[in-house]
Amino acid sequence: MTTGRVLVVDDDPSLAEMLSIILEGEGLEVTVCAAGDLALRAFRESKPDVVLLDVMLPGIDGVEVCRQIRAESTVPIVMLTARTDTVDVVLGLESGADDYVTKPFKPQELVARVRARLRRGDDNAEAETLQLGDLTIDVPGHVVTREGSTILLTPLEFDLLVALARKPWQVFSRETLLEQVWGYRHAGDTRLVNVHVQRLRSKVENDPENPQIVLTVRGVGYKAGKA
Amino acid sequence: MFLGTFVALALGTYMYQRIATGLTARATSIGEQQALNERDYAQSLFNNAPRTDINSLRAIGLQIAAPVTGTGRESDGGQHDRIVIMRSVDNTFPPLGIISTESGDERLIPASLRAAVQKDPTHAQLQIGTAPVNGKMIPAVIVGARIVIPNAGNYDFYLVSPMTAETQMLGIVRTSFLLGGLALTLLLAGIAYLVTRMVVSPVRDAAHVSERLTAGALNERMQVSGEDDLARLATSFNAMADSLQRQIRQLEDLSKLQQRFTSDVSHELRTPLTTIRMASDMIHASRSDFTAPVARSAELLSRELDRFETLLTDLLEISRFDAGAATASHEPGDLRDIVERVVDGCESLAAAQGVRLRVHARRPAVAPMDARRIERIVRNLVTNAIEHAEHKPVDITVAANPTAVAVAVRDYGVGLREGDAEQVFNRFWRADPARARTIGGTGLGLSISLEDARLHDGWLQAWGEPGNGACFRLTLPVRAGQPIVRSPVTLAPDDSSIGIAMPRGNSLTMGTPAAGGPVGHSDPGGERWRSAR
Ligand SMILES: Nc1ncnc2c1ncn2[C@@H]1O[C@H](COP(=O)(O)OP(=O)(O)OP(=O)(O)O)[C@@H](O)[C@H]1O
Ligand SMILES: [Mg+2]
Q1: pLDDT of A144 over the 70 cut
Q2: Interchain contact, B271 vs A105, CB within 8 Å
Q3: Among the ranges A15-29, B20-34, B74-88, which has the highest mean pLDDT value?
Q4: Which end of chain A has the lower number of beta carbons within 10 A, N or C?
Q5: Residue from A41, A70, A42, A67 nearest A55 by CA
Q6: For testing the chain B interface, which of A11, A83, A114 should be mutated: the one with the most B CBs within 10 Å?
Q7: In chain B, which residues have their Cβ closer than 8 Å to the Cβ of A113?
Q8: Does residue B179 carry a pLDDT above 50?
Q9: Does B275 sit within 8 Å of A83, measured CB to CB?
Q10: What is the pLDDT of residues B487-505, one digit of tens each?
Q11: Residue A104: closest CA among chain B residues belongs to which residue?
């Protein structure tokens, strides 16, 4: 069983404790932080592998905390939201969250989301280098370079790029990407894909307005640009 | 404007006529007087003629007829008066010949005047004729009288005085009248234009401002200037706009408050529910460690939590509709894909109920839609059908026509009693609350479906007969904003109006159909009702 450290940022003590019980039951190490303004310090101290972040927090709200953490780390962030309102979810995702779960959620659902974010790194260690446009992707090393300089991607953005680059001939539907990259077994929220493609483009495209690396195939999904 | 011109014209014409008559009257009286003087002078010349032979008399006549001068009337060019002396018709003396100021002048004397002089020789006879002046024929006063020339008998004496001055004057009057009339007309037009500008442009402003207001620019106001009626109009218009704006703001605040409340409740309820849910799941997972009653309690707890959760989700969804906060994205989607997904998802439920799902979808049925909402509608229709199918198959038909795409879900189970088809869309309504339910229903499914259909400007209709099953049909417009003409699939088996009903206002909180416009119209054709926004 994978061990990993999880930082839970939630102001509701019962929920935080319940989350700890569940996650510890899964063999994970859990740190709890109860306020938004303390979150960044807790993050620096505990160096978690995944952050579980409630959107509604006293002090600084979850979206802002997400932004702060994102500014200094590519750690996977999963948001806990109570509202399915488009604005809330999109705001959270745009601030840098990788995924979200809507309250109330089932324990298995949460564990699946956390596991999906932890799952990486231990799969294949054999050397694999992909070429996409003017980008060079070192798959086991998790490094993307353009003309020698490294582009910093979150693990999720990296996975998304690799998934597309491995099969440049294939058009990926949003559902397929949700399954391959996010690890959703059932239908997920396709907005996740849209938002993260935008974030990825803003980092890897020379001109995000006129993408060459990640192309949109109208009505179907996305595909990689020419190698 | 037109009227003004007409009045000016009529007035001008009338005055012109009056002046003309006045001038003519003056000219005739002067002419008559002068003619009499001339005649008397001529008579006396003849009477005192020293010799009365034809030649001497003729000489006297010519002397008389020589261009008259010094009478105070202009006599230059051809404008001077002319005298004509002619033998009377009944004169039997040897003729003196025609004596006239200018040869040919006798032709100016109308025959009727000659006859009149003949008839009444004692008085001067007067007529208006014409005389050539400078080559132009102009009106002239012609006076005829009788003179008696000794030894030559009765002669007619005529004086032709062309109304040169009068004609000239009339010409001047006419020109000035025409010019004046023209100026007056232009002035009238100008004034009319100015007045229209002054009155119409504020009215136009008002129209423009109200259009802007209608378009949602609630801060738009009219400019108030001056103290007149128009200023008052602007002031009251602005007052109206103020009060409208205030009320709209209030409503907006209320709606915002409700949305806020909804979302707060949502958050506040969901957090503890999440904890309970996880705790219950843990207990449920280890229920084998407990005694039978505790284990059963754990099961009940877990199941009821599921129900509680769906109920909460449904209620929150409905309050979002009520707050007007629900928005739909509109991306092209194929109803066939949605039906396929729903059927896949319902396969196990259908199998458990012994119901076969038969899909009839040959052609694509693409329309702009919010796939999540449409899928929710179709899933509810299909699960409802499975629940009520009584182990008989369920037919799901997808079709398209130029204006609409539709999916109809038809079962052959319990059906709907008369009147039920209207009720099914009501919140919390269930045909038989005691009916054994296999899927915990809350009775909110169809009301949410209806709201979802409404967000798409679509129709959601029900038909049913007891024992013959029920049919629910969702019809969506192919292009946003373009109304559905008819649905591509039939609702009732015979497509008659029997047993077909439309849901009317079924809003829990706002209550009246008026709040959302008419919900449905009945018509005896195939399209029963449409849910309007
Ligand atoms: N196909 C059908 N045949 C007969 N009755 C139906 C059919 N579909 C719906 N009804 C009646 O309409 C009622 C309301 O349906 P609705 O979908 O709104 O609620 P529900 O299915 O009871 O609960 P929910 O969908 O919220 O879980 C049902 O309870 C049932 O009585
Ligand atoms: Mg239902």
Answers
A1: yes
A2: no
A3: A15-29
A4: N
A5: A67
A6: A83
A7: none
A8: yes
A9: no
A10: 899 888 775 443 333 443 3
A11: B274
**3-class DSSP state for residue B402?**
coil
Strand residue runs (E) in B319-387: 331-334, 357-360, 366-369
Residue B390 sits in the same domain as residue B407: yes
What would the mean pLDDT of B216-238 be, rounded to a whole number? 82
Is B431 domain-assigned? yes
- Across the range A132-159, mean pLDDT stands at 89
* Ranges of H-type helices in B354-414: 371-388
Lowest mean pLDDT among A37-46, B262-271, B304-313: B262-271
Indicate the residue type of B410.
Answer: R
Sign of CA dihedral B105, B106, B111, B116: positive
Cα(A217) to ligand 2 centroid in Å equals: 36
pLDDT at B529: 40
- Please determine, for residue B449, whether its predicted confidence score (pLDDT) is greater than 70: yes
**Torsion angle, alpha carbons of B149, B151, B152, B157, to 10:** 0
Residues B447 and B364 in one domain: yes
- pLDDT higher than 70, residue A129: yes
The residue from B257, B289, B322 where one domain ends is: B322
Closest CA to B488 of B326, B348, B373, B367: B367
Tell me the sheet residues that pair with B162: B140
User: For ligand 1, which residues put their CB under 6 angstroms from it?
Assistant: B 380, 384-385, 388, 411, 414-416, 424, 429-431, 441-446, 464, 470
CATH 2.40.40.20 for domain A129-224, yes or no, is no
CA of B267 to the centre of ligand 2 (A): 25
Q: What tokens were used for B298? A: 């754990």
Cis omega (within 30 of 0) on the bond before A104? Answer: yes
For residue A57, give the chain B residue with the closest CA.
B267
Torsion angle of the four alpha carbons B424, B425, B426, B431, in this order, in degrees rounded to the nearest 10: 10
Residue A199 structure tokens? 């974030």
What's the B448 CA to ligand 2 centre distance in angstroms?
10
B295: confidence class by pLDDT, cuts 50, 70, 90: very high
Tokens 């009317």 belong to: B504
Give the pLDDT of residue A225: 85
Distance B440 CA to ligand 2 centre (A): 9
Q: Which of B378, B424, B460 to mutate to test the pocket of ligand 1 (most atoms within 8 A of CB)?
A: B424
Tens-digit pLDDT profile for residues A103-127:
888 888 899 899 888 876 555 567 7
Average pLDDT over residues B334-355: 92
Instruction: Please state whether beta strands B459-465 and B500-501 pair in parallel, antiparallel, or not at all (unpaired).
Output: antiparallel
Q: Give B274→chain A minimum CA distance, Å.
A: 4
Which 3 state secondary structure label does DSSP give B333? strand
What's the confidence (pLDDT) of residue A18? 93
Q: Is the pLDDT higher at B350 or at B228?
A: B350
Instruction: Identify which ligand lies nearest to the alpha carbon of B435.
Output: 1
SS (H, E, C) B224-256: CCCCCHHHHHHHHHHHHHHHHHHHHHHHHHHHH
CATH code of the domain covering residue B392: 3.30.565.10
Q: Out of A15, A56, A106, whose CB is closest to B281?
A: A106
Q: What distance in Å separates residue B278's CA from the closest CA in chain A?
A: 6
Inter-chain touch A14–B272, beta carbons under 8 Å: yes
pLDDT of residue B106: 78
Strand pairing class (A221-224; A214-217)? antiparallel
Pairing of strands A172-173, B82-87: unpaired
Is B325 buried (19+), middle (13-18) or exposed (0-12) by CB count in 10 A?
middle
| Contact at CB, A18 and B327, closer than 8 angstroms | no
Decide if domain A5-119 falls under CATH 3.40.50.150. Answer: no
Mean pLDDT of A200-212: 89
pLDDT value at A67 more than 50: yes
Same domain, B158 and B245: no
Q: How many CB pairs under 8 A join A and B?
A: 51
